[in-house]
Design a protein that fits this description.
It contains 15 helices and 15 strands. The chain has about 425 residues and is α/β, with parallel strands linked by helices. It has 3 domains: about 30 residues, no CATH class; about 240 residues, 3-Layer(aba) Sandwich (Rossmann fold); about 100 residues, Oxidized Rhodanese, domain 1 (3-Layer(aba) Sandwich). Helix 2 crosses helix 8. It binds zinc ion (2 copies).
Length: about 425
């Protein structure tokens, strides 16, 4: 779909208004209202075709502040104003991120008049996702986060009495994940890509994907055209995953064949998934699910401790989880340190660095944070045995450097009130 290639042509559907975008999958140019109708109709057809829910259901949507879940909640409310809908936000305690997203999600739910339930992980459970930077999972924060979120999805759905959880997985997600899992040989996970996942045990909510057939680009346009509130900044832990790489490959294929995503989806859905389901069902029957001795959720683990609880137990051993310190604490630390044992990196622009230098600081370009791990490591290597401190106008940026350095095994801290540093020396 392209915004600019319709050259003021009339809308193909209503033949009245000027078109503003062209769908790449169908090669038609549409006006805003016809696009909205087309978009919503496809979601409705998907919901009906796979019998995702009916009006007796209580449907929950976990909101991430991103375009997919935002779009999903909006379309569900519009298509089914009578449906019992519940927005849910999990505040995972990711500094410089979770709080900002919470505000965006609140705005969305107010706009749509959908009730919002906020689950604050640090308040309820006493830890932050960021704390995993101190564990062996420091380079797999996204996967830990996924495990914890999945646990919370079922727990919260049960507590709120939801019968259905709708997620924002779209066509591009599904196809690129299929590719990745296929290449990794992880066939048992492929089954989870079905548009509907029935409950594993009585009382568990059914999981459904109403955007299963919607291309990602169209979600982007829907959100933009309808001015829906979304958070565009990335999570500080976001990484380039194999899935994103395959997404790009599939986009290249799409240039040759505009129907490629639908074709792949159809092959997987009609041929492969039914085959896999048969063998998987057998396996689950044989697998003997237990309840976790700590949290009570189902687990296939033989020692009856689920993946989430195993990971959380790692946090108990860590005494100091400090990633940010005040200038006062910084100065106190320095009293005990030789100057050769630490380095203070100043991430401000060169101009500001020259104008008001900070005593003993080394100026580095903040662009370094965008570099790949290898290059970042090469830069920090000479400081391997030192404690690293970062200072910047933007606290988030200093924090990103701190996280990146920690992931590489450095002891690093962000200064959270840099304005109090000694200047002009
Ligand atoms: Zn039209
Ligand atoms: Zn558990």
């Amino acid at each position: 779909m392209k915004y600019n290639k319709c050259n003021g042509k009339l809308c193909k559907f209503c033949k009245e208004k000027t078109s503003i975008l062209t769908l790449t999958t169908a090669k038609v140019s549409l006006c805003t209202s016809c696009f909205n109708n087309f978009f919503e109709k496809r979601v409705k057809e998907t919901i009906e075709k796979y019998r995702m829910f009916d009006l007796k259901d209580k449907v929950g949507v976990f909101l991430s502040g991103g375009k997919d879940s935002t779009c999903l909640l909006t379309v569900l409310k519009k298509l089914y104003p009578e449906l019992y809908l519940q927005g849910i936000y999990i505040n995972l305690g990711i500094r410089y991120y979770s709080e900002i997203v919470e505000e965006v999600v609140k705005r969305l739910c107010q706009k749509l008049e959908v009730p919002l339930y906020v689950y604050n992980l640090p308040e309820k459970e006493g830890y932050f996702i960021d704390d995993f930077i101190f564990t062996s999972f420091k380079n797999k924060i996204c996967s830990v986060c996924g495990t914890i979120k999945r646990h919370l999805f079922s727990k919260i759905a049960r507590e709120l009495g939801l019968t259905v959880i709708a997620t924002g997985h779209h066509l591009d997600d599904t196809v690129s994940t299929m590719f990745t899992l296929f290449i990794q040989g992880d066939f048992s996970s492929l089954v989870k890509l079905s548009p509907v996942l029935p409950p594993l045990y009585p009382g568990q909510a059914k999981k459904v994907k109403p955007l299963y057939k919607t291309p990602e680009k169209e979600i982007f346009y829907y959100v933009t055209l309808n001015e829906l509130p979304i958070e565009t900044s990335n999570c500080p832990h976001e990484e380039i995953t194999p899935i994103k790489r395959y997404k790009k490959i599939i986009e290249e294929l799409e240039k040759e064949n505009s129907q490629i995503k639908y074709q792949l989806l159809s092959i997987f859905n009609k041929k492969l998934i039914p085959l896999l389901k048969k063998t998987e069902e057998k396996k689950t029957e044989e697998k003997n699910l237990n309840t976790c001795i700590f949290c009570g959720e189902l687990t296939s683990s033989y020692n009856k401790i689920c993946g989430r609880c195993k990971r959380i137990s790692l946090l108990e051993k860590i005494r100091d989880k400090t990633l940010e310190i005040s200038v006062e604490e910084f100065n106190r630390k320095l009293e005990k340190l030789e100057s050769s044992n630490y380095v203070l990196f100043d991430l401000r622009d060169k101009e500001d660095f020259d104008k008001s230098p900070i005593k003993g600081a080394v100026q580095i370009s903040s662009d370094l944070v965008l570099e790949k791990k290898k290059k970042f490591y090469k830069f920090l290597k000479p400081y391997k045995k030192k404690i690293l401190f970062f200072t910047c106008y933007s606290k988030k940026l200093g924090y990103l450097f701190t996280l990146k350095a920690r992931k590489l095994g450095f002891e690093a801290y962000n200064l959270k009130d840099s304005e109090n540093l000694d200047k002009g020396v």
